[in-house]
Amino acid sequence: MTIEKYASADKPDRLKVLSQGFVKRLKDFGLAGLKITEPDFAKLEASMKKTNKPVVFTIRFENDKFIAETSNAGTVLTVAAIDLAKEGDRTKRRALLQAINDHSSLASSADLAAFDQKFPDPQKVAEAKAEVARLEQEIKRDEEWKGKRPKSVKTMLDSEREVSFQNWAKGKTYEKFLNFVVRVENGGAPKDIAEEFIKTGAPKAIKLRDATQKAVEDALQKNQALRLAQALTEAIAVVDARMLPTYNGEILKAITDRLTENKKKLATAKAKYKAVGGK
Q1: In this structure, how many other beta carbons lie within 10 angstroms of the beta carbon of residue 55?
Q2: CB neighbours of 194 closer than 8 A, spacing ≥ 6?
């Protein structure tokens, strides 16, 4: 039980003055539903004359009951009282406890934590649970992705190849080889691709074997059907040897760093889930 002693009246003529301040103190708590009444001054005065002791104004909080009273020896008069346990709405009950904590030391942070454990906030529990699930899913995804790095651009997922890998390759020496592979794999028009990447003087010319280069140029000159399979094979070999190992290394490092960070976050999220009453 925690008690706050507001004041002590050693003379009857001090009762009403102190009572006014006591009522104001109680109103400052802002407790919804708290009814405040003046004490029976005549009864208190009679008790003071009989005991020759002061009247004490106190507020106490125990067993979820907030009680304000005046006392003189065996004469105890209740000025205000509210039983938090009778409030059926969890949010309103929590607000009452918070108000007592905000305006006094009658309810501690430990009391609030104990309440939250016993009566969890459904929304906070749901949010904390969702965060745990999100992090677990990200960790699972990264663990799987970490062990499935492509050994060739040919087997790389289109979504990774055309977003992450191509963005990473921008400005790098062999970027044109990757762009060529993507254009061919995406079913681009062979003639347009050849004129952009293979034809002598092409704006994005890639270095191929002489025989491969000649076969494409001859087909262009004779307006024959273009076969880019050999050129594709050579471009893939360059990408796989010159670009993919470095890219995979950087991606693996990023995944490893993210896994380390997310595992720390997961531990924190699980602790929070438990703290807000998650089971």
Answers
A1: 27
A2: 202, 216, 219, 220, 226, 228
- Report long-range pairs for 128-137 (Cβ below 8 Å, ≥24 apart): 128/269, 128/272, 128/273, 128/276, 128/278, 129/273, 129/278, 131/269, 131/272, 131/273, 132/266, 132/269, 132/270, 132/273, 135/262, 135/265, 135/266, 135/269, 136/266
CB atoms within 10 A of CB 204: 15
DSSP SS3 for 224: coil
Q: What is the pLDDT of residues 40-70, one digit of tens each?
A: 999 999 999 999 999 999 999 999 999 999 9
Residue 275 has pLDDT above 80, yes or no: yes
Q: Tell me the C-alpha distance between 205 and 145, whole Å.
A: 33
Contact 66, 5 (CB under 8 A): no
- On the 0-12 / 13-18 / 19+ scale of CB atoms within 10 A, 214 is exposed
- The CATH architecture of the domain made up of 146-275 is Orthogonal Bundle (1.10)
Closest of 82, 102, 1, 88 to residue 37, by C-alpha: 82
Sign of the alpha-carbon torsion through 49, 51, 52, 58: negative
**CA neighbor of 69 nearest in space, from 101, 50, 43:** 43
DSSP, res 36: B
pLDDT digits (tens, 9 = 90+) for 219-243: 999 999 999 999 999 999 999 999 9
Q: In which band, very low, low, confident or very high, does the pLDDT at 253 lie, cut at 50, 70 and 90?
A: very high
Q: What is the distance between the alpha carbons of residues 124 and 37, in angstroms, rounded to a whole number?
A: 38
- The model's pLDDT over 157-204, given as tens digits with 9 standing for 90+, comes to 999 999 999 999 999 999 999 999 999 999 999 999 999 999 999 999
Which pLDDT value is given to residue 192? 95
Domain boundaries, the chain: 2-119, 146-275
